[in-house]
C-alpha cells in the first residue's frame, strides 16, 4: 500500500489520515488519495469500516522460526505494506510447536485481530475453524494449499530444475536430501517436488537417501552426518532450507569434507545467511519481500470484502554461488 | 519460569494449569508447584489475578530491527520464560522509527497488554507516559537507564577492556568507530564507553575518527568506506553492533582491504551472524538469552506487585575470533 502513496504523490501518513479520518485532510488531497486507492483496486470505505467495527488494528504474523532471517524479512515486507492502512504487524514465533500455533490463533480471536498471516508447521485444517468462525481473515504462506484459506505459495519447478541441471552437469549422481520432519503439515512438499524432478534427470531419490529433522542448524548438522555414513556416499545434498544447509556446512567443516569438492550443497530461500557463509551458499531464492507483499494484498482484499478464495504463486529462482561448483 | 517446572519436577504444562486454573491438577501436584513458585520468589495468586482483571495475556517485545538475529534470540528467550505463565510474546519491529515505536506503545494500551519489553531507539522518556498511566509494566533493555522503567543493561567494561588489550597488543594505534546515529536515544553509550576506556590505553578516539549511521549492514559499509579515506588510515574499527560490522566486512572485501591484516574489526552482541562470516568476527558478546531471561523475571515481579524500580546488569564478554588477529 506504499503503492497508494506513490500513485497519489503524497506521503504514507496522508494516506493513513484519509483512511482513518483521524486528522483532517484537504478536500483535493483526499480525492487524489481515494482515486489512487480505487485505481489500485481497493475500496477505502469497506476496509476502514471493517477496522472500525470493534476490530483491533493488529495483524498477527505467525511463523515457525523467527531466528530464520527469511521470516524476519517477510515480517518487514508485510509491515511495510500494511502500515499505511494503519495496521500493525506483530510477529508470533511458534517454534514449530502445534500447541503454540493453536495458542496464537486463539489469541487472534480473543483480541479480535484484523487478520492473520501464517506459515503453518504442524497445524491441520480444522485448527483454523476458530478463525473462520470469528470472521478473521487468514492468509497462508506455504508450499501447499491449506483448507479454504488464501494462499501465497512458491512456483519452484523451474528453479529446482536449474539446480538439478547444475548438479548433474557437475557430474554428481548420488543425490540426497536433508528434509523436514515427517509430521510437518503436508509432509515435505519440497522433498516431493525434488523427487519428481530428479526422476526426469535420471536420478532417483530413494528413501534411504532422505534424512529428516527440524528446520534448525543443529538438525542440519545431524542429518548431514548421517548422510555421509551411507555408501556410496551422496555427492550432492539438497536441504529443506538455508538454516539446515548452514548446519550441514558446520558439520562438513568438522568432518573435513570439502564443499563443493566432495559434496555439493543446495539450500532453499536465500535468507540473508546464504551469502554470508564461505563458500557462499548455492540456493533456491524464494523472495521473502514478494511473499510479504502478496500476503498483504490478499489480506487487504479480504478486509475489502472479497469472499472467493485466491492463490498467488511467487516465482522461485535458482541462485548459483559456490557450493555446487566453485563460484565467485 | 521453566525454573518452576524444573524445581517442581513437573511439566511446563502442569505449571501453567496450576496458575491458570484452566484444568484440574491433583492436590499434591498443586502444592508442589505452588511451593516451587514461592521458593523462586513469585506469588502465583497475584500474577494470576493481574491476568484475570481484564488484561490480555500478550506481552509485546518492541525492537528496532528484527532482521538482527540478536533480537530474534531475545524474543525466543523471553517467550520461553513467559509461556508457562500463559503469557504470549508478540514481536513488534519499529525499524528504529520513533512514530512506529510510539504506535506500538499505543497498541499495547488499547489492547490492554500484560506488559511491554522494549529496546527503545528514538523514544524519549515522556513517550512512556501512556504505559505508566495505563498501569502497564515496561521493562527496558538498553545501554542506559530510561525514565522510571525497570532496566536490563550490559556490564561491558571488562569486555571492552579485553578488546582494547588485544587490539593494542596487535600493534594497532589508530582506533576508529562506526557508531549509531546521533539522534538515537541516549546518543551512543557504546561510543562513550569505548572512548573513556581507550583513553586508559593511551589511544584517543577523536570525533574525526567516529562516523555515524543506522544499525544496518548498508550503514556499516558506508561508514567503513568513509573511515578508510582518512589519513593516517585507522587500523582498528569498532562497530555499533555485529550487523554494522558485517557491512564493514562487505566493503573491505570490495576495496581489497585485508581483515585483520590491514584493519582489525570488532563487532558487538555476538549475534548468530558473527560466527558465520569468514574470517569469523571478533566481538563483544551480549548474551541475548540472558537478557530475555532477566527481562522476563523483572516483568513477572512487576505483575506480582513489586513497585520499586530495579536494574539488572548482564555481563558482556570479549570473544576473540579472527578479525583482530588471525584466529581459529
TrEMBL record, chains A, B:
<keyword id="KW-0805">Transcription regulation</keyword>
<keyword id="KW-0238">DNA-binding</keyword>
<dbReference type="InterPro" id="IPR046335">
    <property type="entry name" value="LacI/GalR-like_sensor"/>
</dbReference>
<dbReference type="GO" id="GO:0000976">
    <property type="term" value="F:transcription cis-regulatory region binding"/>
</dbReference>
<protein>
    <submittedName>
        <fullName>Transcriptional regulator, LacI family</fullName>
    </submittedName>
</protein>
<keyword id="KW-0804">Transcription</keyword>
<dbReference type="InterPro" id="IPR028082">
    <property type="entry name" value="Peripla_BP_I"/>
</dbReference>
<dbReference type="Pfam" id="PF13377">
    <property type="entry name" value="Peripla_BP_3"/>
</dbReference>
<feature type="domain" description="HTH lacI-type">
    <location>
        <begin position="1"/>
        <end position="53"/>
    </location>
</feature>
<dbReference type="Pfam" id="PF00356">
    <property type="entry name" value="LacI"/>
</dbReference>
<dbReference type="InterPro" id="IPR000843">
    <property type="entry name" value="HTH_LacI"/>
</dbReference>
<dbReference type="GO" id="GO:0003700">
    <property type="term" value="F:DNA-binding transcription factor activity"/>
</dbReference>
<dbReference type="InterPro" id="IPR010982">
    <property type="entry name" value="Lambda_DNA-bd_dom_sf"/>
</dbReference>
Amino acid at each position: 500500500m506504499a503503492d497508494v502513496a506513490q500513485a497519489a504523490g503524497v506521503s504514507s501518513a496522508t494516506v493513513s489520515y484519509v483512511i482513518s479520518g483521524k486528522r483532517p485532510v484537504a478536500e483535493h488531497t483526499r480525492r487524489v488519495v481515494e482515486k489512487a486507492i480505487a485505481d489500485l483496486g481497493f475500496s477505502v470505505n469497506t476496509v476502514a469500516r471493517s477496522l472500525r467495527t470493534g476490530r483491533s488494528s493488529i495483524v498477527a504474523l505467525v511463523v515457525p522460526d523467527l531466528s530464520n532471517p527469511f521470516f524476519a524479512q517477510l515480517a518487514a515486507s508485510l509491515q511495510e505494506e500494511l502500515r499505511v492502512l494503519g495496521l500493525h504487524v506483530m510477529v508470533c514465533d511458534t517454534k514449530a510447536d502445534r500447541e503454540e500455533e493453536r495458542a496464537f490463533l486463539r489469541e487472534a480471536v480473543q483480541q479480535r485481530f484484523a487478520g492473520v498471516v501464517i506459515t503453518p508447521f504442524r497445524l491441520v485444517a480444522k485448527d483454523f475453524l476458530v478463525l473462520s468462525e470469528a470472521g478473521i481473515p487468514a492468509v497462508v504462506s506455504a508450499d501447499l494449499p491449506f483448507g479454504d484459506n488464501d494462499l501465497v505459495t512458491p512456483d519452484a519447478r523451474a528453479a529446482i530444475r536449474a539446480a538439478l541441471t547444475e548438479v548433474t552437469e557437475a557430474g554428481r549422481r548420488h543425490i540426497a536430501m536433508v528434509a523436514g520432519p515427517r509430521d510437518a503439515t503436508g509432509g515435505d512438499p519440497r522433498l516431493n517436488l525434488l523427487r519428481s524432478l530428479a526422476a526426469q534427470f535420471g536420478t532417483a531419490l530413494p528413501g534411504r537417501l532422505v534424512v529428516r529433522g527440524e528446520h534448525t542448524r543443529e538438525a542440519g548438522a545431524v542429518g548431514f552426518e548421517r548422510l555421509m555414513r551411507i555408501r556410496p556416499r551422496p555427492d550432492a545434498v539438497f536441504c529443506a532450507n538455508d538454516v539446515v544447509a548452514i548446519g550441514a556446512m558446520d558439520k562438513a567443516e568438522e568432518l573435513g569434507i570439502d564443499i563443493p569438492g566432495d559434496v555439493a550443497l543446495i539450500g532453499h530461500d536465500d535468507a540473508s545467511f546464504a551469502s554470508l557463509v564461505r563458500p557462499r551458499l548455492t540456493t533456491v531464492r524464494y523472495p521473502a519481500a514478494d511473499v510479504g507483499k502478496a500476503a498483504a494484498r490478499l489480506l487487504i482484499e479480504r478486509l475489502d470484502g472479497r469472499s472467493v478464495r485466491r492463490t498467488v504463486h511467487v516465482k522461485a529462482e535458482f541462485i548459483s554461488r559456490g557450493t555446487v561448483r566453485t563460484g565467485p
